[in-house]
Amino acid sequence: MSTRPLGWVLLLLVALPAAQAGEPGTAGPGQLRIVTNYWADVYVDGKRKGRAPTPPISLPAGKHVVELRGNPRVKDYRIEVVIKAGERLEVVAESTPVN
């Protein structure tokens, strides 16, 4: 059996509280942080947000489409995430080189 690289593989989604309950900042936007082992351009809802790995990106609460693309050595990656107000969501994605 032959094994072929599959591209991006989602390893972990972690939701962390951005602030303790009752402290300022617990309502409103949340944060998204992308961690990868290869560089990739990060797009959220079709808008470029920088290059992964990224510092936390502030986003309004709700559903968002996150794409990692632009690196010719790995396949593009797409995931839908739900950001909750006051939380930090961390997406850890490991890529597999494309031959």
Automatic annotation (TrEMBL):
Residues 1-21 form the signal peptide. Residues 40-91 form the PEGA domain. Keywords: Signal. This is PEGA domain-containing protein. The lineage of its organism: Bacteria, Pseudomonadati, Myxococcota, Myxococcia, Myxococcales.
